Amino acid sequence: MLELEGAVEAAELPGGELVVAARGPLDERIAGELRATLIPLSGADGSTLVLDLGGAHGLDGAALLVICDAARLVHKRGARLGIVTRSPNVLRLLSDSGIDPLVDISPSLTEAMRR
Questions:
Q1: Cα–Cα distance, 11 to 89 (Å, whole number)
Q2: Which of 39, 83, 97, 100 is the most buried (most CB within 10 A)?
Q3: CATH assignment of 7-114?
């Protein structure tokens, strides 16, 4: 069953990796919360940051802009933002946005942690 409202959660894994999980529709209603959670973590020196979109469906321009901003911030500190997704639509939107060189895309969180 598809969720009608988006949600964002953040956690630090035992190895110090930071994971932001976004689920449901990622649209203008959730973009502010996504920005408030993801952007501060994007500047955390030395920490691996992964955005888990495995439970997300739909991605509009407002949410995509937040992801692009986060990817650029992570890139400025010499790293790449990890993104978890299997969605062909999300993959296409990420590619069309031009941030491919700034992110590592994985089909699962387990695989993203191996990078």
A1: 26
A2: 83
A3: 3.30.750.24
Q: Residue 22 contacts by C-beta under 8 Å, 6 or more apart in sequence?
A: 6, 7, 8, 30, 34, 51, 52, 53, 55, 56, 63
What pTM was computed for the model? Answer: 0.94
Task: Report the chain's C-alpha Rg in angstroms.
Answer: 13
Each residue of 11-39: pLDDT tens digit?
999 988 999 999 999 999 999 999 999 99
Domains of the chain, residue spans: 7-114
What local confidence, expressed as pLDDT, does residue 58 receive? Answer: 84
Name the token pair of 5. Answer: 């409202």
DSSP for residue 73: H
- Report residues of the chain scoring pLDDT below 70: 1-3
